[in-house]
Amino acid sequence: MTETQQWWRGAAIYQIYPRSFADGDGDGVGDVAGIRARLTHPRDLGVDALWISPWYVSPMADAGYDVADFRDIDPLFGTLSEAEALIREAHAMDLRVIVDMVPNHCSDQHSWFRAALAAGPGSPERARFHFRPGRGDGGELPPNDWPSHFGGPAWHRVMEADGTAGEWYLHLFAPGQPDFNWDNPDVREEFESVLRFWLDRGVDGFRIDVADNLVKDPALPDLASVPEDGPSPVHDQDGVHDIYRSWRRIADSYPGERIFVGELWLSDRERFARYLRPDELHTGFNFPFLQAGFDAGRMRAVIDDTLAAHAPVGAAPTWVLSNHDTTRHVTRYGRADSSYGFDRRRLHGTPVDLELGTRRARAAALLTMALPGCVYVYQGDELGLWEVEDIPEHLIQDPAFHGTAGADPGRDGCRVPLPWEGDGAPFGFSPDGATTGPWLPQPPAWKDHTVAAQTGDPDSTLELYRTALRLRHAEAGLGGGELTWLDAGEDVLAFTRPGGFTCVVNFSERAVDLPEHHELLLASGPLDHGRLPSATAAWLR
Ligand code: GLC
């Protein structure tokens, strides 16, 4: 690996969702063999690092975010030695590797949780989780009013060894994802050891799942009993920062620059920035940007807020348009309301103009890549893929769909297997002769969106990404560094970066003049007699 100072400050990082990237063994589900066979794709795209969503042993109650063994790979995805080989091969291609760490909860099949069930109430095994007696005369009511993110209460009642209904355990997500008790020293030690396990295998960092959720108010008070403007008992508790300080010491004790990126859905920017203090996490996902929609005013406000929040702690911002939990932005940006919230059901299935969504997505890609900081690309962003909103219900796997009896459409629509080549499914996702089709059906229209179909087509989204990432790399003023806004008129965002680089994005309905320049480096769509059309971005010098 080439060593660069603080590489994450200006990195481009590609998110691989293993079950949907590439299937090496023909069972219809992506795997490590598939990633290894297709590693040239992120390399040729020009990213600096990969973030690999969970590949650990898991009963897949939440697509691998329910981990039964943090030190091994699920047989569905391959073996530990294949994962080690992947890390080596990626490094040989100058790609760093970030793995997902899921410290808030494990699987109900994790050995610690099984031991906790067997050991019974009051045992040290149960103290590693949040077990409580129920309320009501016979303990038949959940211990408090916390809801699960996937519908229903965040508590599940267990059957004790003597066959009677017993205690309840906390699960902020699916019942198959019991929350760890982070006040328990065993839990802290265990995760420090798991971090070392992967650092010893050469990983360059960790993406921390629901990073602000780990510590709970030990009294587990009813939400109805806490003041709305007071601290939440469920997330962003002050005690969580100690954990990250100790994790940072571990990462810093390894050679090279090993980094953390926190999944932090926090709207309070000051609270968000606390996670990025110099002795805590290096970076955190900047979700308000993703949520802003394609809107000049809202995006400008989020960019300003982001830069202002990061500056005092000296941290690098991140820019992300989509991930495996959110509606793909080609679809979001094709809607009259292009914002995003966790009320996915509100917009799901409402009209989408994919042509408009695509133009906006291409413009937004150039915007994010020109901003100061680190940029994330979710697999398929670079192919211009859209959300698949017509997956037959019986094929949907997401617990967010099943836990809410379908009220939440779930996240499978952004997890459809990638199209690589060919005119019909599986589009090279699975090898020839595969016994089953991809785990989710791919739209026939993706034949024009395969990697092969787009390669060499200068108008394709894939070539736009390749060119943009190459320019971004070569341009000294991009990545980290300063941004200066230009006044470019209403509904137009324009800014300069060091070295005479300018980015202009036209959010308005009409074409606008470009600011003065002597070179057009790249545009997200054709210009209109030298003017920048609606929903188009340009990079200038
Ligand atoms: C994070 C993951 C999501 C998962 C949840 C529970 O939000 O990104 O996919 O369902 O955590 O682990």
What's the mean pLDDT score? 97
**What would you call the quaternary organization?**
single chain
The CATH class assignment of the largest domain is: Alpha Beta
How many strands in all?
18
User: Describe the biggest sheet?
Assistant: 8 strands, parallel
SS strand fraction: 5-15%
Q: How many helices?
A: 15
Which homologous superfamily in CATH is the superfamily of the largest domain? Glycosidases
Bound molecules: alpha-D-glucopyranose
- Rounded to an integer in angstroms, the radius of gyration calculated over CA atoms is 23 Å
The CATH topology of the largest domain corresponds to TIM Barrel
Q: Strand order, biggest sheet? A: 11-10-9-5-2-1-13-12
Uncertain runs: none
At CATH level 2, the architecture of the largest domain is Alpha-Beta Barrel
Q: Could you tell me how far the N terminus lies from the C terminus, measured between alpha carbons in angstroms?
A: 31 Å
Helicity level, as a percent range? 25-40%
Shape: globular
Judged by helices, strands and strand pairing, the structural class is: alpha/beta
Whole-number total of structural domains: 3
Describe it.
With 541 residues, this protein is of the alpha/beta class. It contains 15 helices and 18 strands. Helix 6 (185-200) packs parallel to helix 7 (240-252) and helix 12 (354-370) packs parallel to helix 15 (461-474). A hairpin with a 3-residue loop joins strand 15 (492-497) and strand 16 (501-506). The chain is 25% helix and 14% strand. The strands form four sheets. Strands 11-10-9-5-2-1-13-12 form an eight-stranded parallel sheet. The protein has a five-stranded antiparallel sheet with strand order 14-15-16-18-17, with helices on one face. It is globular and about 80 Å long. The two termini are 31 Å apart. The model has no long low-confidence stretch (mean pLDDT 97). It folds into three domains: 7-102 and 203-209 and 260-454, TIM Barrel (Alpha-Beta Barrel), CATH 3.20.20; 111-170, Alpha-Beta Complex (Oligo-1,6-glucosidase, domain 2); 482-540, Golgi alpha-mannosidase II (Immunoglobulin-like). The structure holds alpha-D-glucopyranose. Alpha-D-glucopyranose (GLC) binds at residues 62, 65, 102, 173, 209-210, 263, 324-325. Alpha-D-glucopyranose binds at residues 62, 65, 102, 173, 209-210, 263, 324-325.
